[in-house]
Amino acid sequence: MASTSKIPLQTRNLPWVEKYRPQTLDDLISHQDILSTIQKFISEDRLPHLLFYGPPGTGKTSTILACAKQLYKNREFNSMVLELNASDDRGIDVVRGPILSFASTRTIFKKGFKLVILDEADAMTQDAQNALRRVIEKFTENTRFCLICNYLSKIIPALQSRCTRFRFGPLSQSQMIPRLEHVIQQENIDITPDGMKAIVTLSVGDMRRSLNILQSTHMAYGKVTEETVYTCTGHPLRSDIANILDWALNKDFSTAYKQILQLKTLKGLALHDILTEVHLLIHRVDFSLSVRMDLLIKLADIEYRLASGTSEKIQLSSMLAAFQAVRDIVVSDG
Ligand SMILES: Nc1ncnc2c1ncn2[C@@H]1O[C@H](COP(=O)(O)OP(=O)(O)O)[C@@H](O)[C@H]1O
Ligand SMILES: [Mg+2]
Predict the structure, then answer these.
(1) Transmembrane ranges (predicted)?
(2) What is the pLDDT along the chain (334 residues), one digit of tens a residue?
(3) 175: CB partners within 8 A, 6+ apart
(4) pTM summary value
Protein backbone atom coordinates (compact mmCIF):
# COMPACT_ATOMS: atom_id res chain seq x y z
CA MET A 1 0.00 0.00 0.00
CA ALA A 2 2.76 2.46 0.78
CA SER A 3 4.65 3.64 -2.24
CA THR A 4 8.18 4.93 -2.25
CA SER A 5 8.47 4.68 -6.00
CA LYS A 6 11.15 6.53 -7.83
CA ILE A 7 10.13 7.95 -11.15
CA PRO A 8 12.12 6.91 -14.18
CA LEU A 9 12.81 10.14 -16.00
CA GLN A 10 13.13 8.84 -19.53
CA THR A 11 9.79 7.08 -19.83
CA ARG A 12 8.19 8.49 -22.92
CA ASN A 13 4.52 8.13 -22.13
CA LEU A 14 4.76 9.74 -18.74
CA PRO A 15 2.37 12.62 -18.09
CA TRP A 16 4.38 15.81 -18.21
CA VAL A 17 3.59 16.65 -14.60
CA GLU A 18 5.66 13.60 -13.67
CA LYS A 19 8.22 13.89 -16.46
CA TYR A 20 8.97 17.48 -15.43
CA ARG A 21 8.60 17.06 -11.70
CA PRO A 22 11.48 18.94 -10.06
CA GLN A 23 14.11 16.44 -8.94
CA THR A 24 16.11 18.64 -6.60
CA LEU A 25 15.24 21.60 -4.39
CA ASP A 26 17.06 23.84 -6.87
CA ASP A 27 14.67 22.80 -9.66
CA LEU A 28 11.69 24.29 -7.86
CA ILE A 29 10.62 27.60 -9.28
CA SER A 30 8.80 29.22 -6.38
CA HIS A 31 8.67 29.72 -2.63
CA GLN A 32 12.38 30.46 -2.35
CA ASP A 33 12.00 31.55 1.27
CA ILE A 34 10.50 28.20 2.24
CA LEU A 35 13.17 26.29 0.35
CA SER A 36 16.04 28.16 1.91
CA THR A 37 14.58 27.64 5.39
CA ILE A 38 14.30 23.92 4.75
CA GLN A 39 17.82 23.76 3.30
CA LYS A 40 19.05 25.42 6.46
CA PHE A 41 17.24 22.89 8.65
CA ILE A 42 18.77 20.05 6.67
CA SER A 43 22.30 21.40 6.67
CA GLU A 44 22.17 22.00 10.42
CA ASP A 45 20.71 18.54 10.83
CA ARG A 46 17.70 19.73 12.78
CA LEU A 47 14.77 19.09 10.50
CA PRO A 48 11.51 19.53 12.44
CA HIS A 49 8.22 17.82 11.65
CA LEU A 50 6.79 19.64 8.68
CA LEU A 51 3.31 20.66 7.62
CA PHE A 52 2.91 21.93 4.06
CA TYR A 53 -0.40 23.43 3.09
CA GLY A 54 -1.87 25.40 0.21
CA PRO A 55 -3.75 24.96 -3.08
CA PRO A 56 -2.96 22.09 -5.48
CA GLY A 57 -0.12 22.20 -7.98
CA THR A 58 2.13 24.53 -6.03
CA GLY A 59 5.01 22.16 -5.34
CA LYS A 60 4.26 20.66 -1.93
CA THR A 61 4.79 17.03 -2.87
CA SER A 62 7.72 17.89 -5.14
CA THR A 63 9.43 19.81 -2.35
CA ILE A 64 9.35 16.99 0.17
CA LEU A 65 10.34 14.39 -2.43
CA ALA A 66 13.31 16.54 -3.42
CA CYS A 67 14.25 16.86 0.26
CA ALA A 68 14.04 13.11 0.67
CA LYS A 69 16.28 12.57 -2.35
CA GLN A 70 18.79 14.96 -0.92
CA LEU A 71 18.70 13.30 2.49
CA TYR A 72 18.90 9.67 1.43
CA LYS A 73 20.95 7.88 -1.14
CA ASN A 74 19.25 5.63 -3.66
CA ARG A 75 19.79 2.36 -1.89
CA GLU A 76 18.62 3.56 1.50
CA PHE A 77 15.63 5.49 0.14
CA ASN A 78 13.15 2.64 0.41
CA SER A 79 14.07 1.74 3.94
CA MET A 80 14.21 5.32 5.18
CA VAL A 81 11.20 6.92 3.52
CA LEU A 82 7.55 5.95 3.83
CA GLU A 83 5.29 7.80 1.46
CA LEU A 84 1.54 7.55 1.80
CA ASN A 85 -0.51 9.29 -0.85
CA ALA A 86 -4.09 9.75 -1.93
CA SER A 87 -4.55 6.17 -3.03
CA ASP A 88 -3.74 4.81 0.42
CA ASP A 89 -6.29 4.29 3.13
CA ARG A 90 -6.70 7.10 5.67
CA GLY A 91 -8.23 5.45 8.69
CA ILE A 92 -6.76 4.76 12.08
CA ASP A 93 -5.58 1.31 10.93
CA VAL A 94 -2.93 2.86 8.71
CA VAL A 95 -1.53 4.76 11.65
CA ARG A 96 -1.55 1.72 13.92
CA GLY A 97 -0.26 -0.56 11.15
CA PRO A 98 2.23 0.58 8.51
CA ILE A 99 3.08 3.97 10.02
CA LEU A 100 3.66 2.62 13.52
CA SER A 101 5.70 -0.33 12.36
CA PHE A 102 7.80 1.83 10.03
CA ALA A 103 8.49 4.41 12.72
CA SER A 104 9.25 1.90 15.43
CA THR A 105 11.76 -0.28 13.59
CA ARG A 106 15.39 0.62 14.03
CA THR A 107 17.30 2.16 11.20
CA ILE A 108 20.00 -0.06 9.72
CA PHE A 109 21.81 2.16 7.27
CA LYS A 110 22.26 5.34 9.09
CA LYS A 111 22.12 6.89 12.51
CA GLY A 112 19.87 9.65 11.16
CA PHE A 113 16.11 9.82 11.19
CA LYS A 114 13.55 8.22 8.90
CA LEU A 115 10.97 10.23 7.04
CA VAL A 116 7.22 9.63 6.84
CA ILE A 117 5.44 11.62 4.13
CA LEU A 118 1.69 11.83 4.57
CA ASP A 119 0.38 13.36 1.40
CA GLU A 120 -3.19 14.67 1.43
CA ALA A 121 -3.30 14.39 5.18
CA ASP A 122 -6.55 16.36 5.31
CA ALA A 123 -8.28 13.15 4.21
CA MET A 124 -7.33 11.50 7.52
CA THR A 125 -10.10 10.93 10.02
CA GLN A 126 -9.99 12.68 13.40
CA ASP A 127 -9.27 9.37 15.12
CA ALA A 128 -6.40 8.68 12.78
CA GLN A 129 -5.00 12.16 13.39
CA ASN A 130 -5.17 11.68 17.15
CA ALA A 131 -3.45 8.33 16.89
CA LEU A 132 -0.83 9.93 14.63
CA ARG A 133 -0.17 12.59 17.23
CA ARG A 134 0.82 9.91 19.72
CA VAL A 135 3.03 8.12 17.18
CA ILE A 136 4.77 11.40 16.36
CA GLU A 137 5.44 12.05 20.02
CA LYS A 138 6.72 8.60 20.72
CA PHE A 139 9.13 8.35 17.80
CA THR A 140 10.40 11.90 17.41
CA GLU A 141 13.81 10.53 18.33
CA ASN A 142 14.29 8.67 15.05
CA THR A 143 11.46 9.69 12.71
CA ARG A 144 10.37 12.93 11.07
CA PHE A 145 6.91 13.46 9.68
CA CYS A 146 5.85 15.65 6.81
CA LEU A 147 2.13 16.28 6.52
CA ILE A 148 0.76 17.74 3.31
CA CYS A 149 -2.72 19.14 2.83
CA ASN A 150 -4.81 21.66 0.93
CA TYR A 151 -6.83 22.84 3.92
CA LEU A 152 -5.02 23.58 7.13
CA SER A 153 -8.32 23.72 9.02
CA LYS A 154 -8.79 19.99 8.48
CA ILE A 155 -5.70 19.15 10.52
CA ILE A 156 -6.33 18.95 14.26
CA PRO A 157 -4.62 21.71 16.29
CA ALA A 158 -2.62 19.17 18.31
CA LEU A 159 -0.94 17.98 15.10
CA GLN A 160 -0.49 21.50 13.73
CA SER A 161 1.34 22.58 16.85
CA ARG A 162 3.81 19.74 16.57
CA CYS A 163 4.91 20.75 13.09
CA THR A 164 6.62 23.71 11.48
CA ARG A 165 4.06 25.06 9.04
CA PHE A 166 4.73 26.32 5.54
CA ARG A 167 2.13 27.81 3.25
CA PHE A 168 2.57 27.18 -0.47
CA GLY A 169 0.72 29.97 -2.25
CA PRO A 170 -0.37 29.90 -5.90
CA LEU A 171 2.44 30.50 -8.40
CA SER A 172 2.68 33.84 -10.17
CA GLN A 173 2.51 34.10 -13.95
CA SER A 174 6.12 35.21 -14.08
CA GLN A 175 7.12 32.01 -12.28
CA MET A 176 4.99 29.73 -14.42
CA ILE A 177 5.84 31.08 -17.86
CA PRO A 178 9.59 30.27 -17.92
CA ARG A 179 8.87 26.75 -16.67
CA LEU A 180 6.20 26.26 -19.35
CA GLU A 181 8.62 27.63 -21.93
CA HIS A 182 11.18 25.07 -20.86
CA VAL A 183 8.68 22.24 -21.43
CA ILE A 184 7.55 23.77 -24.71
CA GLN A 185 11.12 23.78 -25.94
CA GLN A 186 11.85 20.24 -24.75
CA GLU A 187 8.70 18.86 -26.34
CA ASN A 188 8.97 20.99 -29.45
CA ILE A 189 5.51 22.51 -29.21
CA ASP A 190 4.00 24.98 -31.61
CA ILE A 191 2.34 27.59 -29.41
CA THR A 192 1.10 31.12 -30.00
CA PRO A 193 1.48 33.95 -27.44
CA ASP A 194 -2.28 34.02 -26.81
CA GLY A 195 -2.21 30.24 -26.33
CA MET A 196 0.33 30.72 -23.56
CA LYS A 197 -1.76 33.49 -22.07
CA ALA A 198 -4.84 31.28 -22.10
CA ILE A 199 -3.03 28.46 -20.28
CA VAL A 200 -1.69 30.75 -17.61
CA THR A 201 -5.06 32.44 -17.14
CA LEU A 202 -6.99 29.19 -16.87
CA SER A 203 -4.60 27.53 -14.46
CA VAL A 204 -4.67 30.33 -11.84
CA GLY A 205 -1.34 29.56 -10.19
CA ASP A 206 -1.68 25.76 -10.37
CA MET A 207 1.43 24.47 -12.15
CA ARG A 208 0.03 20.97 -12.44
CA ARG A 209 -3.05 22.24 -14.21
CA SER A 210 -0.99 24.38 -16.59
CA LEU A 211 1.14 21.39 -17.62
CA ASN A 212 -1.92 19.19 -18.02
CA ILE A 213 -3.66 21.76 -20.22
CA LEU A 214 -0.51 22.20 -22.31
CA GLN A 215 -0.13 18.46 -22.80
CA SER A 216 -3.74 17.66 -23.57
CA THR A 217 -4.16 20.59 -25.96
CA HIS A 218 -0.96 19.64 -27.74
CA MET A 219 -2.04 16.00 -28.02
CA ALA A 220 -5.56 16.80 -29.17
CA TYR A 221 -4.91 19.68 -31.56
CA GLY A 222 -1.18 19.88 -32.24
CA LYS A 223 -0.89 23.63 -32.30
CA VAL A 224 -1.59 25.38 -29.02
CA THR A 225 -3.60 28.57 -29.50
CA GLU A 226 -6.14 30.46 -27.43
CA GLU A 227 -8.89 28.72 -29.37
CA THR A 228 -7.55 25.16 -28.96
CA VAL A 229 -6.80 25.68 -25.27
CA TYR A 230 -10.30 26.96 -24.55
CA THR A 231 -11.89 24.24 -26.65
CA CYS A 232 -9.79 21.51 -25.08
CA THR A 233 -10.66 22.57 -21.54
CA GLY A 234 -14.31 23.11 -22.43
CA HIS A 235 -14.00 26.74 -21.45
CA PRO A 236 -16.12 29.30 -23.33
CA LEU A 237 -14.26 31.43 -25.86
CA ARG A 238 -14.49 35.19 -25.67
CA SER A 239 -16.54 35.18 -28.85
CA ASP A 240 -18.96 32.65 -27.30
CA ILE A 241 -19.47 34.91 -24.32
CA ALA A 242 -19.93 37.96 -26.54
CA ASN A 243 -22.60 36.04 -28.45
CA ILE A 244 -24.34 34.91 -25.28
CA LEU A 245 -24.45 38.44 -23.93
CA ASP A 246 -25.67 39.74 -27.25
CA TRP A 247 -28.49 37.19 -27.40
CA ALA A 248 -29.46 37.79 -23.78
CA LEU A 249 -29.73 41.53 -24.33
CA ASN A 250 -31.17 41.67 -27.82
CA LYS A 251 -33.17 38.53 -28.58
CA ASP A 252 -36.50 37.60 -27.10
CA PHE A 253 -36.43 35.24 -24.18
CA SER A 254 -37.17 31.94 -25.86
CA THR A 255 -34.88 32.51 -28.85
CA ALA A 256 -32.02 33.52 -26.56
CA TYR A 257 -32.64 30.53 -24.34
CA LYS A 258 -32.65 28.12 -27.27
CA GLN A 259 -29.50 29.56 -28.82
CA ILE A 260 -27.52 29.58 -25.61
CA LEU A 261 -28.59 26.06 -24.78
CA GLN A 262 -27.59 24.91 -28.24
CA LEU A 263 -24.14 26.50 -27.97
CA LYS A 264 -23.72 25.12 -24.47
CA THR A 265 -24.53 21.59 -25.60
CA LEU A 266 -22.48 21.82 -28.78
CA LYS A 267 -19.33 22.92 -26.98
CA GLY A 268 -19.95 21.14 -23.70
CA LEU A 269 -19.79 24.38 -21.70
CA ALA A 270 -20.61 24.56 -18.00
CA LEU A 271 -23.03 27.28 -16.98
CA HIS A 272 -20.72 28.11 -14.13
CA ASP A 273 -17.91 29.02 -16.55
CA ILE A 274 -20.31 31.02 -18.69
CA LEU A 275 -21.48 32.91 -15.63
CA THR A 276 -17.93 33.73 -14.54
CA GLU A 277 -17.08 35.16 -17.94
CA VAL A 278 -20.40 36.98 -18.41
CA HIS A 279 -19.86 38.58 -15.05
CA LEU A 280 -16.50 39.94 -16.16
CA LEU A 281 -18.02 41.32 -19.32
CA ILE A 282 -20.79 43.11 -17.43
CA HIS A 283 -18.16 45.31 -15.86
CA ARG A 284 -17.18 46.44 -19.34
CA VAL A 285 -20.62 47.05 -20.82
CA ASP A 286 -21.97 50.56 -20.46
CA PHE A 287 -24.81 49.93 -17.99
CA SER A 288 -25.97 52.52 -15.48
CA LEU A 289 -24.71 51.89 -11.97
CA SER A 290 -28.03 50.69 -10.56
CA VAL A 291 -28.61 48.33 -13.48
CA ARG A 292 -25.14 46.91 -13.12
CA MET A 293 -25.55 46.36 -9.39
CA ASP A 294 -28.88 44.68 -9.90
CA LEU A 295 -27.38 42.30 -12.47
CA LEU A 296 -24.33 41.48 -10.39
CA ILE A 297 -26.45 40.63 -7.36
CA LYS A 298 -28.67 38.36 -9.42
CA LEU A 299 -25.69 36.61 -11.02
CA ALA A 300 -24.12 36.05 -7.62
CA ASP A 301 -27.36 34.42 -6.47
CA ILE A 302 -27.31 32.13 -9.49
CA GLU A 303 -23.70 31.21 -8.85
CA TYR A 304 -24.55 30.34 -5.27
CA ARG A 305 -27.44 28.15 -6.35
CA LEU A 306 -25.33 26.43 -9.02
CA ALA A 307 -22.67 25.63 -6.46
CA SER A 308 -25.22 23.74 -4.40
CA GLY A 309 -26.05 21.57 -7.39
CA THR A 310 -29.29 22.99 -8.75
CA SER A 311 -30.57 22.48 -12.31
CA GLU A 312 -28.47 24.24 -14.96
CA LYS A 313 -31.49 24.79 -17.18
CA ILE A 314 -33.47 26.56 -14.49
CA GLN A 315 -30.46 28.68 -13.56
CA LEU A 316 -29.92 29.54 -17.23
CA SER A 317 -33.53 30.75 -17.39
CA SER A 318 -32.88 32.73 -14.27
CA MET A 319 -29.82 34.35 -15.84
CA LEU A 320 -31.83 35.29 -18.91
CA ALA A 321 -34.62 36.63 -16.74
CA ALA A 322 -32.08 38.89 -15.01
CA PHE A 323 -31.05 40.33 -18.38
CA GLN A 324 -34.65 40.60 -19.55
CA ALA A 325 -35.49 42.69 -16.48
CA VAL A 326 -32.52 44.96 -17.20
CA ARG A 327 -33.68 45.41 -20.78
CA ASP A 328 -37.08 46.59 -19.61
CA ILE A 329 -35.42 49.19 -17.40
CA VAL A 330 -33.13 50.36 -20.19
CA VAL A 331 -36.03 50.60 -22.61
CA SER A 332 -38.35 52.44 -20.23
CA ASP A 333 -35.51 54.78 -19.22
CA GLY A 334 -34.68 55.54 -22.81
N1 LIG B 1 7.18 25.13 -7.41
C2 LIG B 1 7.23 24.36 -8.50
N3 LIG B 1 8.33 24.34 -9.28
C4 LIG B 1 8.38 23.55 -10.39
N5 LIG B 1 7.39 22.73 -10.78
C6 LIG B 1 6.27 22.71 -10.04
C7 LIG B 1 6.14 23.52 -8.86
N8 LIG B 1 4.93 23.29 -8.32
C9 LIG B 1 4.34 22.39 -9.11
N10 LIG B 1 5.13 22.03 -10.15
C11 LIG B 1 4.78 21.09 -11.23
O12 LIG B 1 3.45 20.61 -10.96
C13 LIG B 1 3.46 19.22 -10.67
C14 LIG B 1 2.65 18.99 -9.42
O15 LIG B 1 3.33 19.52 -8.30
P16 LIG B 1 3.18 18.93 -6.85
O17 LIG B 1 4.43 19.15 -6.12
O18 LIG B 1 2.68 17.51 -6.91
O19 LIG B 1 2.03 19.88 -6.29
P20 LIG B 1 1.19 19.79 -4.95
O21 LIG B 1 1.71 18.64 -4.16
O22 LIG B 1 1.40 21.12 -4.31
O23 LIG B 1 -0.24 19.60 -5.40
C24 LIG B 1 4.91 18.83 -10.52
O25 LIG B 1 5.14 17.57 -11.08
C26 LIG B 1 5.67 19.88 -11.28
O27 LIG B 1 5.80 19.46 -12.61
MG1 LIG C 1 0.61 16.85 -3.78
Answers:
(1) none
(2) 444 444 454 556 789 999 999 999 889 998 899 999 999 999 988 899 999 999 999 999 999 999 999 888 888 888 899 998 767 777 888 888 888 888 888 766 556 789 999 999 988 889 999 999 999 998 888 899 999 999 999 999 999 999 999 999 999 999 999 999 999 999 999 999 999 999 999 999 999 999 999 999 999 999 999 999 999 999 999 899 999 999 999 999 999 999 999 999 998 899 999 999 999 888 888 888 999 999 999 999 999 999 999 999 999 999 999 999 888 776 565 4
(3) 29, 30
(4) 0.83
Partner residues linked to 145 by β-bridges: 116
Ligand 1 probe mutation, 23, 208, 210, 214, most atoms within 8 A of CB: 208
Residue whose Cα lies nearest atom 24 of ligand 1: it is 21
Residue 192 CB partners (closer than 8 Å, separation 6+):
223, 224, 225, 226
CA 57 to ligand 1 centroid distance, Å:
5
CATH 3.40.50.300 fits 31-167, yes or no: yes
User: How far is the C-alpha of 276 from the C-alpha of 247, rounded, in Å?
Assistant: 17
Q: Does domain 173-233 have CATH number 1.10.8.60?
A: yes
Measured from CB, residues less than 6 Å from any atom of ligand 1 are 17, 20-22, 28-30, 56-62, 168, 179, 207-208, 211
Domain locations along the chain: 31-167, 173-233, 238-333
Among protein residues, the one with the nearest Cα to ligand 1's atom 9 is: 59
Q: Are strands 50-53 and 114-118 parallel, antiparallel or unpaired?
A: unpaired
What CA–CA distance (Å, rounded) separates 81 from 116? 6
